[in-house]
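pasting for the record
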Amino acid sequence: MSNTLFEKVWASHEIMELHGRSLLYIDKYFLDDGSAVLSYEQMEAGGLEVRNPEQALSLSDHYVPSRPTAMIFADTDARRMSESAAKFAAKRRMPHFGFGHPYQGISHVVGIEQGFSLPGLTLVCGDSHTATHGAVGALAFGIGSTEITQVMAAQALWQMKPKTMRINVDGQLGMGVEAKDVILAIIGTIGTKGASGYAVEYAGSTVDALGIAQRATICNMSIEAGAKIGMVAPDDVTLQHLVGLPFAPVGESWDQAVLHWRTLRSDSDAKFDREVHIDATAIEPVVTWGTSPEDVLPISGCVPDPASEGDPDRKRQMLRSLEYMGLVPGVPLCDLAIDRVFIGSCTNSRIEDLRAAAAVVRGRQAVVPSWVVPGSQLIRSQAEREGLDQIFIQAGFEWRLPGCSLCCGNNGDYVAPGERCASTSNRNFIGRQGPDARTHLLSPSMAAAAAVTGRLTDVRRLPRLV
């Protein structure tokens, strides 16, 4: 029988099926400082033991401070959550990359850079963007706190098996177009419910040509299209990324793993429940205008007019979004002034993202408050070795400590009410970056262009500096 990549991994982890639900063996899981606290309390209250502590990775990311000069938590609750994570991990002898650890960072960045996330594994975390790890061919998805408790105690989890979808992206990306533009264009095409109930496989010549960081960006925002799971089949790019990483197999184990990983591809005649085709050559640098990731348009476009929308529900949603965002229909997107810039998050904080932004910033000056928050301590150190930090600092950016930071504001980093932020994060929901904050999602290069011009700007129109 022919199978998709997802079906192969699912079947190899299915312990049993009962009443339409599958009991899945879970290989590995992340415990972050926000979502896992309730699980710690449940484990303690129930007197439960962690079944396989070596298959967990505990991290501090949501609540850690980002200001190097402060080095203090935003409040006592944030400090308590971070300390609870450290104590729980130490008691169970779990690996823990806490605040100040040389490997500390965002779970969805660290797992991939450390080789903790591997092809063909089932991997979960109490965070909706866990699909990021599908970039290396893992079957990864977000779960709730009670489910985290179940995984810690039983190393298994009941799940409904989703349908399958393949999103084919083909063609060469144009100048100034990045992986963030690709996934936003996909969401703009199929909508935020377009992949609901599906496990998505991203394929095609465009995806094949991307590095792991860019694949991670695409898989990261699968949830914004409605899917819990987003995957890319492992290939030579994946193997080159994984070789020599701390958690990756070595020696004979590596050779055996590679043989298995090379089988993790959808069969040529595998049937998907839905297929979508995207022409990469038609994608321009894009930006969101509303309060949903599907509210996206090319930077060359204008704020849309709800009067031209025939669907009454969609029209009402557009009116609410425009009111919240303080926008007027017909205004060119490139005329919108912004108040601050955020380059970071589990979507766009890897070294490749920082290099892309620095290439735009070099020789220019930020004209609005702008932050760069690397995704991990290793990325921060590498950027400093390459001199990227000095490019940003000399341009007037703040060079901050790794963590989730302004993506979700749990650590006290907020966009002020009414301010308009150009952000490389993954969500532009109402209040996501702070009460009454207005968020425009875009790529690292586009964010850098906004920082040095003070408005949403087509990065392709910036003159090249020698």
